[in-house]
Each structure stands twice: as C-alpha cells, then as structure tokens.
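Lab meeting, item 3. Inverse folding demo.
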C-alpha cells in the first residue's frame, strides 16, 4: 500500500515532468508516458483474447480483414494505488507515416479494472484519433506489409481529465500526461497477410 508521502511525492514528480512527456507530431504521438525508468509506476495490462507480443484475433480488426468486426478487445489491468480515473490510448508505432493513434478515451472510473470486448463506456470522454474521428479505430494495416504492433496503454490518473468530447490529440494527450501517476501496456500484433 502506498503511503500518503509516497503518493504525494509521485504526484509532484509526475506534475514536474509532465511538460516533457508528450510529443505530438504530424499524424500521431512520438511518446506519451510517465517516468519510464521508474518501473514502480508500471502496472499489468492483460487480455483474455491475446497475450503480450502475440497476434490480435481478427474479430478485433477492421472489416477489410476476414472476420473483422472492429470491436475493442477485452482488457484487464491491475489496480494501482491512488488512481482516481483511467485513460486508454491505442496506437500503432509501425504505421507508414509514423505512429498512428487509434483511440483516446479518458475518465474511466478509478474503481474499474477491465473492459469487456466491444465495450461502450458510460461517463467517459473520447478524443479524436489520428484519422480525425472520435472513437475506436480498429487495427487495419495495409495488406502485404509485415504485421504492425498495436499498443494498448492504460494510464492511471490522479484526477479526471477536463477534456471535451472530440478533443484533438494536441489537447488530449498533454491533459492525460499531466495527470498520469502510473501506466501499463499490452502490445499485440496484427497484419502481415
């Protein structure tokens, strides 16, 4: 259990370092996160649908792929101490024009530690993805390319994010980074066919 002193120290450290945590570039993010060297800020993210570094089942991909239903995969995460809310960012660092953000959702209740497949989240706020639309954009790499990595990063937040629905990446990502007190990541692969 994290003491009040450690929690206050972690929050102060996160706030002090937030300015350098996010780099927004042309079509995606170059980096989002907390103090990556401090592994105590990391928690576990898993999915019953695929393992870390393993293929994502086609039902969670776009309809251009056989069986693609465009559903969000189920996710589970460990319960980090002090989280008032969570945010999820899904991105593809292997996209042809640089990292492509597929989903930005914030203000998931701090008592939640999982999502079912195809979840529709109440009382949350979604920002725009790299395609300029709001909501989850499923994996859909160009056919014939090697498989792409899809990173499902869950951020533990010190407080809910004051972003509006449809916020741009340049607005939503810094708001999430400034409130991040921990994170966890699951990476799956898709494509190559």
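The presenter then showed the designed sequence:
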């Amino acid at each position: 259990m994290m003491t009040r002193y450690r929690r206050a120290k972690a929050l102060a450290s996160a706030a002090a370092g937030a300015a350098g945590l996010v780099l927004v570039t042309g079509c995606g993010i170059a980096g989002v996160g907390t103090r990556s060297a401090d592994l105590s800020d990391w928690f576990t993210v898993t999915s019953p649908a695929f393992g870390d570094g393993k293929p994502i089942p086609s039902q969670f991909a776009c309809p251009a792929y056989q069986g693609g239903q465009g559903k969000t995969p189920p996710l589970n995460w460990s319960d980090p101490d002090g989280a008032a809310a969570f945010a999820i960012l899904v991105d593809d660092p292997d996209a042809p024009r640089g990292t492509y953000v597929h989903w930005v959702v914030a203000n998931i209740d701090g008592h939640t530690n999982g999502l079912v497949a195809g979840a529709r989240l109440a009382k949350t706020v979604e920002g725009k993805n790299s395609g300029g639309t709001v909501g989850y954009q499923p994996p859909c790499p160009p056919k014939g390319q090697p498989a792409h990595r899809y990173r499902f990063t869950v951020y533990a937040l010190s407080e809910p994010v004051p972003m509006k629905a449809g916020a741009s990446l340049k607005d939503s990502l810094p708001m999430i980074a400034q409130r991040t007190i921990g994170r966890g990541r699951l990476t799956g692969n898709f494509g190559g066919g």
